[in-house]
């Protein structure tokens, strides 16, 4: 199971890298979304994918899945939500101000290009 | 007072939260922010003294025992860095009052300023690797907002790049933590160290070397080492001077601290990663000085000097002997103070002249002698002229390099000082000597007020250099904890 997940995560990272190297800002943001999906799945996988009950304490159950990676993922998810929301608004604002979504055109050192 | 070490995180957090309610009231914002900055300085000074007398302080949040809950740890290095951060924050705050402009002040500038301090102080104090990630994000999120606040075109453009680079490096941080967790099964830094020590009796396993290099990539992206520094010159060119000083003094140094901490605590078994670190650090020095002497733009000159300093500090860490580490700690604190001072001075020059192009500036010394001599002292201190503070750190780093028989490295560090001196003297000679001119922005600039902060910092740096005898016990104590992780581990795990 871990092997299969490793391949899936690898494909996610590959796609994310490809998208982040493109010119359009929106494709880059989609790339960052895929990158964080990959990272979150990786935490889950590296925590171990053994069979066990959901980590909710009940009397009759004696094996649980590891609760720690789930807490880490939950934290990482909300952080990446916050950053992605900021990035999307930033992209919107800079599209209005700069008049382009092509990152190749966002160059130069002059303060008001 | 066992909760003492959480205060440097808690004070700015509460201040930032309270300031949100006074979004439009400039006076309240300024007074509260100043009071909280002063409180930060006092509290962090008390922590330094406490660590000095009682050894490494650790605090288990909510009283969960050490490997299971989040632990905050304040050893001498953390305490000193938090203290330095508080001083720099106070100086930048004073500078902000007259330079940042009403528009930014009305849009939660002081709140975000305080949240940045939460992130930086938290990253310095935490003893949990995932908690360090969270504090990094707190710091980065505030830095995105500070970078883009004002919304000029250059800021928007550069924030996009800065944001993208940091999203990637944060994802890599999560990935590295996931790998490390699957190998050692714990997140507490002291506990990770003991587990790695247990499995590394016959040399470090390959997977841990890979994780060490991954951490180097992650923190190298934050700390701008070669070849991961490419985002820094552009991004740091965009924000206003007060924000720039805060970034230049604090953000990259958090990356440097994280490399130092993880390498001395986790990966001290592995010679390979230290060699890699040494090579990358020296390449950063080379790239940095090339940039610093190539430009005729005063902002870029100081920005590339950040990369030089990061290289010098990490070279001292990479030799991993007492002299090198002591030198690195000493130089780290010196560099935080002097970089903040330099950026603030550069900000004043740009405010007066309206340009950062050195070819269009000359003869400032006739009208602004105070500014000129402050810059002169800061430049000498940056290059490491003996009575000032840059000297001892570099001396010890070179000594560490020679003791570690890495003569090329020691030579490069010495040569870099010469070129750094040249690059900063270029600002002084071209900008301050020569024929006096008049500039458009000169009437509106409150030079006297703005000069207070860099003057305070330069005086502090001079005291730090001249009185180095009385500071060295603290620095030595920090380096000893780095050399010998067992004191850190014992303080956390209470074995």
Describe this structure in words.
The complex is a heterodimer of chains A (113) and B (495). By secondary structure, chain A is mainly α. Helices cover 65% and strands 0% of the residues of chain A. Chain A has three helices and no strands. The mean pLDDT of chain A is 90. With 495 residues, chain B is mostly helical. Helix content of chain B is 77%, strand content 2%. In chain B, helix 12 runs antiparallel to helix 13. The longest helix of chain B has 32 residues, at 153-184. Chain B starts with 6 loop residues before the first helix and ends with a helix. The mean pLDDT of chain B is 93. Classes of the chains: A mainly alpha (113), B mainly alpha (495). The interface between A and B is large, with 39 and 34 residues.
Summary?
The complex is a heterodimer of chains A (113) and B (495). By secondary structure, chain A is mainly α.
């Amino acid at each position: 199971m871990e092997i299969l997940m490793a391949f899936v995560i690898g494909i996610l990272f590959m796609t994310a890298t490809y998208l982040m190297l493109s010119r359009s800002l929106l494709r880059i943001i989609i790339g960052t979304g895929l990158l964080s999906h990959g990272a979150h799945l990786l935490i889950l996988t590296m925590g171990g994918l053994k069979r066990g009950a959901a980590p909710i304490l009940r009397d009759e159950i004696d094996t649980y899945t590891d609760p720690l990676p789930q807490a880490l993922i939950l934290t990482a998810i909300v952080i990446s939500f916050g950053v992605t929301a900021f990035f999307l608004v930033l992209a919107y604002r800079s599209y209005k101000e700069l008049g382009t979504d092509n990152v190749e055109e966002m160059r130069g050192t002059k303060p008001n290009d | 007072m066992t909760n003492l070490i959480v205060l440097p995180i808690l004070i700015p957090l509460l201040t930032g939260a309270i300031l949100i309610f006074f979004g439009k009231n400039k006076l309240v914002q300024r007074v509260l922010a100043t009071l909280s900055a002063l409180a930060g300085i006092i509290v962090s000074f008390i922590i330094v003294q406490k660590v000095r007398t009682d050894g490494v302080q650790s605090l288990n949040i909510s009283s969960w025992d050490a490997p299971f809950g989040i632990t905050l740890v304040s050893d001498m290095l953390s305490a000193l860095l938090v203290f330095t951060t508080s001083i720099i924050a106070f100086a930048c705050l004073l500078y902000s009052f007259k330079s940042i402009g009403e528009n930014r002040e009305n849009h939660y500038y002081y709140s975000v300023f305080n949240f940045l301090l939460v992130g930086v102080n938290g990253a310095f104090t935490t003893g949990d690797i995932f908690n360090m990630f969270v504090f990094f994000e707190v710091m980065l999120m505030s830095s995105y907002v500070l970078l883009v606040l004002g919304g000029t075109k250059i800021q928007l453009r550069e924030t996009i790049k800065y944001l993208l680079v940091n999203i990637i490096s944060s994802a890599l941080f999560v990935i590295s933590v996931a790998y490390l967790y699957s190998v050692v099964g714990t997140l507490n830094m002291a506990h990770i160290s003991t587990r790695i020590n247990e499995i590394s009796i016959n040399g470090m396993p390959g997977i841990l070397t890979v994780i060490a290099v991954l951490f180097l990539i992650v923190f190298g992206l934050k700390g701008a080492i070669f070849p991961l520094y490419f985002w820094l010159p552009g991004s740091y060119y965009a924000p206003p001077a007060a924000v720039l000083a805060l970034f230049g003094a604090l953000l990259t140094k958090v990356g440097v601290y994280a490399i130092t901490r993880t390498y001395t605590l986790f990966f001290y078994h592995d010679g390979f990663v230290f060699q890699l670190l040494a090579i990358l650090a020296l390449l950063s020095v080379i790239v940095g000085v090339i940039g610093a002497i190539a430009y005729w733009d005063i902002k870029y000159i100081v920005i590339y000097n950040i990369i030089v300093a990061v290289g010098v500090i990490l070279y001292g860490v990479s030799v991993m002997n007492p002299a090198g580490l002591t030198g690195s700690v000493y130089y780290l604190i010196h560099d935080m103070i002097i970089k903040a001072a330099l950026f603030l001075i550069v900000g004043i020059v740009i405010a007066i002249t309206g340009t950062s192009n050195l070819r269009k500036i000359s003869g400032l010394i006739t009208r602004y002698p105070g500014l000129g001599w402050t810059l002169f002292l800061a430049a000498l201190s940056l290059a490491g002229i003996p009575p000032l503070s840059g000297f001892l750190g570099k001396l010890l780093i070179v000594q560490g390099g020679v003791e570690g028989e890495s003569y090329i490295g020691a030579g490069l560090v010495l040569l870099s000082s010469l070129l750094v001196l040249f690059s900063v003297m270029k600002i002084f000679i071209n900008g301050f000597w020569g024929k006096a001119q008049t500039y458009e922005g000169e009437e509106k600039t409150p030079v006297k007020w703005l000069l207070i902060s860099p003057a305070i910092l330069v005086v502090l740096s001079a005291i730090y250099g001249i009185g180095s005898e009385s500071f060295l016990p603290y620095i030595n104590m920090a380096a000893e904890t780095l050399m010998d992780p067992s004191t850190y581990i014992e303080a956390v795990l209470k074995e």
